[in-house]
Amino acid sequence: MPQVSSYIRTLDSEDQLLVACCAAAVRPEQTDLADVGPDIDIDLDTVDWRGFVTRARWHGVHGTIYPVVAAQLRPAIPEEPWNWLRRLSNGQARHNLAVAETLADVAEVFDREGVGYTVIKGLPLAQKLYGTITARRCRDIDLLVRPADFERARALLEGLGYASKHGFTAAQDRVWLRHAADLPMVNADRRVLVELHHLFEMRPAAAARQCVADLLACSRPSSVARFEVPAPLGPELIPYLAWHGSKHAWFRLFWLLDIAALELRAGIDDREAIWDAAVRLRQERALALAWWLSAALFGVPGVAPHVSAAEARQVEWLGREVLANAFGPVQPLAPHTLARRTRALRWEWSASRGGAQKLAVVRDYLLSVQPDDIRALPLPRSLHWFYPVLRPVRVAWRLGIGLARAAIVGLRGRRQDPVVDPAAREP
């Protein structure tokens, strides 16, 4: 497994400093940024501080590193980027407090009506790992319920003023739920997103069902400010987080930071138990990759049980891909859903294990149903089966349009090339 300094030193100064601040945030005993690695030597005079804050915001760790920056870097950071970081941290704190208020109302109703649920990630994880709900990026509330309780849970949320985020008609909404694993719901007054899950997009389907069962079974009462909600904060959570981060190609650092903090701050470090949970979910490669990255960036022990030499080489190759693509100047997301999904397909193809998983990746890419499909063609419920067919049609259409545009640009370029008279050429 990797040595921390050898990989951090491949990053530029801004990312090295960001990783060092993250490592300090998840290591309670660490008092100096230099303790991250013996070979790390960041010249603070050369740091682009606005770029540093931009990357902290992009990776979703601005609130987590704020205390570290305030304690160890305040004299070095100029006033303008410092104020920006402070405003970002304060804004995250205000948002998380609003999320906590919403979660308290949701928990009260669900507990009163006897609907079982668990809160994945979010505020309980922030409280557990960092001692405060304001130190971790919590964009929304992820509620997981048993499939049998989904409609009751949805009705309770609607009673609190929530509705489907997509703005579908009732018929379109039923089509979406037939193909989707969660329903995003919004409240216009508070603007807090609640994602109601009854399944995950984990492959194969048996693994997804097992993941739901594991997370619900290991949930325990967890503190959020001054109230408690059920949340999974045991070894079973880590393979789920590894799957979630790997599914998104680890392009944001805060997913990986959670896994490192669960081991270093929460003491969930029984790697045999964590590995066994990953085997049940068939997420061994995702977990091994999460551990590789944690070792490479944060100095977490790099022990991954039961990983063969060939698999370790593949994991290291994937880890290097993450370091090459997730760091450096912030790149905007691809504007088109299909382009983003194409990029995700390439990553999932590389990260999948075996022919069956690779086939499932391609099938999901070609036959999945997206909100844009349903909005573009409001079919009657009797024709809901046609929606998965739209994906390959759109893929082929977009590919054809791209090739046609390239051909037109090439022809125009040829016509605009100046014609040189051979007689005018110099001898």
Summarize the structure in words.
The protein has 427 residues and is an alpha+beta fold. 58% of the residues lie in helices and 7% in strands. The protein has a domain at 332-418. The chain has 18 helices and 7 strands.
Features:
427 residues, alpha+beta, 5-stranded mixed beta sheet, 7% strand, globular, single chain, disordered C terminus
Topology, pairings included?
Blueprint: H1 4-8, H2 13-26, H3 49-58, H4 62-72, H5 79-113, E1 118-120, H6 122-130, E2 140-144, H7 150-159, E3 163-164, H8 170-179, E4 182-186, E5 193-197, H9 205-217, E6 219-224, E7 227-232, H10 237-247, H11 253-264, H12 271-281, H13 284-298, H14 309-326, H15 337-351, H16 354-367, H17 371-376, H18 387-416
Parallel strand pairs: 2-5
Antiparallel strand pairs: 1-2, 3-4, 4-5, 6-7
Overall structural class, as computed from helix and strand content, comes to alpha+beta
Question: What's the overall average pLDDT, rounded?
Answer: 85
Query: Which runs of at least 5 residues are low in confidence (pLDDT < 50)?
Result: 419-427
User: Mind telling me the C-alpha Rg?
Assistant: 24 Å
- Beta-strand portion reads 5-15%
- How many strands, what sense, and barrel or not for the largest sheet? 5 strands, mixed
Report how far the terminal alpha carbons are from each other.
64 Å
Helical content class:
55-70%
Total of helices: 18
